[in-house]
Amino acid sequence: MSLFNGNNQRQDGVSGSELRAVEHNVFGGRRILWAGLAAVLLPLGVLLALQYWWLTELEQNSAIAREATLNNYLEATTKEVYYHYYKISERTLNLPAELFTKNKLEKAGSYFKKKEVKGARSLFVLGYGEKENRLLFFNPETGVMEDSGHSDESMAVWAAASPWSFMRKKGSKVKSAALAADQHNPGTRIILNPITDENWQLVGLAGLIIDEAYFKSTVLPEAIEFSLPKFEDANTDELRVVVRDGRKKQVFPEGKKAAWEKDRARRGFQFVFTDWSIALQGSYASPEKWARVNFTYNMTLSAVLALVLLGGIGLTIRTALREIKLSAMKNEFVSNVSHELRTPLSSIRVFGEFMRRGKIEAPEKIREYGSYIETESRRLTQLINNILDFSRIESGHLSYDFQATDLEELLAGTLATFSIRLRDKGFDVEYSEPAEPLPEVRLDANAIDRAVANLLDNAVKYANGERHIGVRLQREGDEITIAVSDHGIGIPKEELERIFDRFHRVSTGLVHDVKGSGLGLSLVKHIAEAHGGSVKAESEPGRGSTFTLRLPIEGPTGEAT
User: Which residues pair with 123 in a beta bridge?
Assistant: First the structure.
């Protein structure tokens, strides 16, 4: 038999070189794939780093911009207060100079009477005469100017007017007569309008005393409502405005006191109430928190998009790796099938050549060689049928012819066909018959014959020196089971679920050294499922394997293909 061994070694050498070429192509393809992944991930990492840097810069700039915005809100409020008092003062206190130069101060009442002044506690005029200075207050009830005597208000007015009186006494010219506010006495805040003649000489003062109560109740709330934004989201902290007087006592809003340290932005008023301050509190008033929220949102969005992109890349790589692996498995399949085809063909050719040359004359030898030829032909037929069945499964054209069949008789025929090959390789088969006759089973006899043949062929391939195979046929409820056991090298636990996948070959130990198409067990699974049954493998490395084919007695419930 040296001829067969030499021929097999030659074929194995060809298969080994083909497999090495396949592995080289697969590894090369994977290297290119991982290089492509690196080419994608590197720019993505750089992009995310730049995004992080940009968002950090944006966070800082946003905090500055937000703080400036909040200060602008406060400035808008203070300007509303300023415009209110400047407007009423300019409109009310702009009196003709002749009232002062001709000593007609009493007529100022007719001017004040025409004005509807809101927010002024008192209106007054101060005239600088040749002999004495006169201070008159407007009585809104009578509409005339009256002498206030020595009241607190008159004393406050004389104190506020003292710098102007000094300028009058020195004869200084007032070339820019603008409104001025005196707030030396916080209880009596005065706005003065200097009145000059055609020579820019100061001839008198017109003024008003601010009504602080009106400021708190009307002017300030209206300015805040007009200037500051409204927040409609009730689930968030609203923007809160806090106003404090010169003694840092809270004057707005009334009620619960707001802590000074919680102010996020603060500024003073203009023109009047300059010793008071207005501040913002609340989460919306925190520039740092606002910037941090925006930074977190944008960075989270970028991270999510990056994860989605990485997920897409991962799926693409997974698909590509599966395709590469499938391609490698197909190439390995072609290599192994070529070996599997050549082996029986070589045996048939050698035995046929012996018989053709007439070197074998004994009838027993002729029958023996004929048996070898028949066995190898059946083996070749089985391999070709496996390939054809797999092709039909892939194209969806594999169909089955279900007929009531005596499974005991079918199994006996399958074992008889295998007996020569098993005997030649030194195997003995222990067949365990069912305890009682089995009913006929609705199945495709040819398909089940191929399934059992594949299980026997699998047991022979992985025997690893152990020459005993067990076949057991029995009934379990509504199912008939066919179990094929060997005592070979076994299968690792993690491989048990995958051995029924097409082209799958266990890649460890001696299992990988056994030649095969990688289709046999996947076809067994397809045949079992087409019959409404299943196939299961139980194995332990070093102690052998048992494959159990389960078939329902009634056959499949529908049309199987």
Answer: 208
Q: What is the pTM of this model?
A: 0.46
* Torsion over CA: 58, 63, 67, 70 (sign): positive
Give the three-class secondary structure for 478.
Answer: coil
Q: Given pLDDT bands bounded at 50, 70 and 90, which one contains residue 188?
A: very high
Q: What is the mean pLDDT of residues 465-483?
A: 89
Q: Which residues pair with 205 in a beta bridge?
A: 126, 194
CA–CA gap between residue 96 and residue 551 (Å, rounded): 119
Give the separation between CA 1 and CA 142, rounded to whole angstroms: 143
CA distances from 120 to 84, 182, 190, 199 (A): 11, 14, 9, 31
Cα 538 to Cα 533: distance, rounded to the nearest angstrom: 17
Beta strands 265-268; 277-281: pairing state? antiparallel
Q: Positive or negative, the Cα torsion across 229, 230, 233, 236? A: positive
Q: With H, G, I as helix, E, B as strand and everything else as coil, classify residue 375.
A: helix
**Greatest pairwise CA separation for the chain in angstroms:** 168
Place of tokens 């090298």: 489
Amino acid letter at 345?
L
φ/ψ of residue 555, rounded to 5 = 80, -175
Burial category of 533 from C-beta neighbours within 10 Å (exposed 0-12, middle 13-18, buried 19 and up): buried
Q: What is the pLDDT of residues 420-449, one digit of tens each?
A: 777 777 888 888 988 888 899 899 888 898
Contact 455, 447 (CB under 8 A): no
